[in-house]
Write a structure and sequence with these properties.
Strand order of the largest sheet: 1-3-2
Number of strands: 6
Shape: elongated
Strand content: 5-15%
Low-confidence stretches: 216-229
Radius of gyration: 33 Å
Largest sheet: 3 strands, antiparallel
Mean pLDDT: 76
Length: about 375
């Protein structure tokens, strides 16, 4: 997730923890008091209502905001003064189900304990991750040619996608004060400032077109038509002048490579790297085994001593532990050549009866590597 999403997740965790204390004691929390408590707990800049409104937009069922009459001294409520109270919505799962058309029975008072805090934080994390995936999907669709990858197969972002470019979460609106004091929506703001449009004629015309849906005049920018304009085909440097058929094949291979890089799991990637390395070290291990077998006049060789010999024979700087991993990977991925046997708590390596020659081993490792990369 981008950094501002992580900050928003941390704010949500802090707000939830502070509200849980008041909620479990059946006490109310004023918005002004919540700002001070979050600022003190996070020990960092807290943008107050902006963060809360962003959370309200992304996870609208997480908290409830209610205007209540302010209480003065001796518990007397003030008739003309209101304060905004914030409380955790313990029925958020029911509200989300109701929004999806699923009926759930109403519940009683539920304490906001550690289990519920973790569940709510996981729900919010999932929402932020989904928002980042949506922006990544738009990025893939904007490529030339566009890429189509299922969310279930996606394990990492595209290499050219900068996750920090994800826009900030938009702010929602707080409920209006009782009595309809002040504008609460964008339409209310427009109606409340009608008199100001006479100062700027162009602004007045633009707002009228926005309400009536009239297209822009000649010479003005139409955003929708600009979005629909076809983008010029960009050819990478070094591929200019190639025949269209060859260029299409190269772009298809590049597109398949990018999709594989985004959908390949870490386990498959590691296995492909192991097979690529075994194509070089596999024949070396077999040659070292035959050489050491003839020198010691033994059919089974001690694994510890054998891997040290292979490490000394390797042209690169490889240690005995790395060669032991390569040996075990060779036995696991290309059975039929070498095998392990244990005798008196000592592990030995020996050849399999009727093992094929090195050319068969090279072909098998190459075939396994190509199938992994396909």
């Amino acid at each position: 997730m981008p950094r501002h999403y992580k900050v928003l997740l941390e704010v949500f965790r802090t707000v939830d923890q502070i509200l849980s204390i008041r909620h479990n004691r059946h006490e109310v929390m004023r918005l002004a008091d919540l700002k001070k408590s979050v600022q003190s707990a996070m020990k960092r800049d807290f943008r107050g209502e902006k963060h809360l409104l962003q959370i309200r937009r992304a996870f609208p069922h997480a908290f409830t905001f209610n205007w209540e009459q302010a209480t003065g001294r001796y518990g007397i409520k003030k008739a003309d003064a209101y304060e905004l109270h914030v409380a955790p919505n313990m029925g958020y799962a029911s509200d989300m189900s109701a929004a999806a058309g699923i009926e759930t029975p109403a519940g009683h008072f539920v304490r906001l304990d550690a289990k519920e805090l973790v569940e709510r934080r996981q729900v919010f994390r999932g929402i932020l991750t989904t928002m980042a995936r949506d922006h990544h999907r738009l990025f893939l669709a904007s490529l030339d040619p566009p890429l189509d990858v299922k969310d279930a197969d996606l394990v990492r972002w595209h290499r050219d996608f900068d996750v920090e470019t994800c826009p900030e979460v938009e702010c929602a609106e707080l409920p209006g004060k009782p009595g309809g004091l002040g504008p609460t929506t964008a339409s209310d703001v427009i109606r409340a400032t009608q008199d100001l449009f006479g100062v700027n004629k162009r602004l007045e015309e633009a707002m009228n077109r926005l309400r009536e849906g009239v297209p822009a005049k000649e010479g003005e920018v139409d955003i929708e038509s600009a979005k629909q304009e076809p983008k010029p085909v960009v050819v990478k440097k070094g591929l200019e002048g190639l025949p269209p058929a060859v260029l299409e094949k190269l772009l298809a291979k590049e597109r398949a490579k990018e999709i594989r890089a985004m959908t390949e799991s870490s386990g498959n990637k590691k296995e492909a790297e192991t097979l690529e390395e075994l194509q070089r070290t596999g024949p070396l291990i077999m040659n070292c085994y035959r050489s050491e077998k003839q020198r010691q006049c033994r059919s089974a060789l001690d694994v510890k001593g054998f891997v040290k010999f292979v490490a000394q024979s390797h042209p690169g700087r490889k240690g005995a532990s790395e060669m032991e991993e390569a040996l075990r990977a060779l036995v696991r991925l290309a059975p039929g050549f070498l095998q392990f046997v244990v005798l008196r708590n000592v592990e030995y390596v020996k050849s399999v009866a009727g093992a094929p020659d090195l050319n068969v081993l090279r072909d098998r490792l190459k075939d396994l590597y190509e199938r992994t990369k396909a």
